[in-house]
Amino acid sequence: MKRWIAFVCLVGLVTGAGAEDWLRVRVEVPSPAALDLLLDSGLTTYTCEPTLGTTDMALSPSQLPELDFRGLRYKVVSTLKNPYDVPGEERPQATDYRNEYFTFSEIVGFFDNLVATRPKYVRRVQIGTSIQNRPIYAYRFGGPSVLNGPPSKHYAIVGLTHAREWITGSVVMHIGKMLADSLASPSTRSLVGQRVTWIVPVVNPDGYSYTWTTNRLWRKNRRNNGGSTGVDINRNYAKGWGGQGSSGSGSSDTYRGTAPFSEPETAAVRDLVLALPNFAGFIDFHSYSQLVLWPWSYTTASPPTAGQLQSVAIALRNAINTGGVVYTQGQASTALYIAAGTSKDYVYDVRANAPSFTIELRDTGQFGFELPPSQITPTQNEAWSAMLALFEQVGS
Ligand code: 0X9
Ligand code: ZN
Fold it and tell me: Would you tell me which of 53, 164, 210, 235 could form a disulfide with 256, CB atoms 3.0–4.6 Å apart?
């Protein structure tokens, strides 16, 4: 491969930077080989779209030579907070889920409190255990009447697959709260109707804890790969596993693992989705990019029900956009990039083409994964609008 001379644009930057500052570095990616070189480097990605063209990375100044060494051209576009400068999980307990990010145990406490206050409508089931022995919980939201009534439609909603995408934990908490409140009040019960919604608030508890204790920008789980750490849970599902947009290298942020469902987190979501009767819809929340994405991810070929997926996605997007912030929709592989082994492809495939989406929440890159707490409430409202639109589209 042609070796470029690194071009560093540090003008006016280094002067203002503190000793602890990290750098947002835009790397030129002219070829698939260069993209592999970059992703397999084990350096931290700082973008939702590691694609040909340019890709942003989060690097300490001391890591810049690693790009030089690989012959990758780049420029520094801004400084970043040192991702190793983390709050720790022992900070004073958060109380306001509308305006503060919650740790793993706070999120569990929040959902357990919904179970305690609305026992008729909310139930908890442990669907798996992480590598570091943390529980993976799913919470069931539905009226008790559904036990005797007509077969209800079942939905699954998951958050915090990617550890650093903190806003996804906030939105699933809000959806849970709104579902519980809606079910418990006769005036709003019709919003939810006979439906049963299962929420897995934290698919990746080990990775999420690690973003609080050690590295704010960690994405994967904490699997010991022998010399590297972590499997990308959203490359570990069976559909298209091993294909384009996933890596066989343990150090990559998109490492697919040794086999489909090699990871307990992925297997837990699979088992839940396979167990639900009358499966009617799936949303996997991610950030960032403000996109409603539908299958396929693993191929640019059209899915069998493309027309239906697109019209549901348009309804979700329209519902979100009434709040004023603009999301767009599209088939994941063409609107974003090809990614093999993702959740929504698997769920769509295995559950008879049930509408399945990845929703990439705010923002479009200004703050990225570190969305300011002031944007938690409006983003939660957007997600709840999308949820209601999905219910409406699928029908009761
Ligand atoms: O790459 C992913 O897993 C998702 N983006 S993220 O930045 N949150 O990691 C997107 C998955 C959706 N599918 C495709 N982009 N093909
Ligand atoms: Zn993600």
Answer: 235
